[in-house]
Amino acid sequence: MSSVSPADLAEHEFLRGLADRHLAQLARVASLATAKPGDRIFEEGSRADRFWLIRTGRIALDLQVPGPQRLLVETLGPGEVIGLSWWAPAHRWEFGAAAVQPTTAFELGTGVVIEMCEADPALGYQFTRRLMTVAVHRLNATRIRLQDLYGGSPPPAGGP
Question: Torsion angle, CA of 113/93/47/53, rounded to 10 degrees?
Answer without folding.
Answer: -40
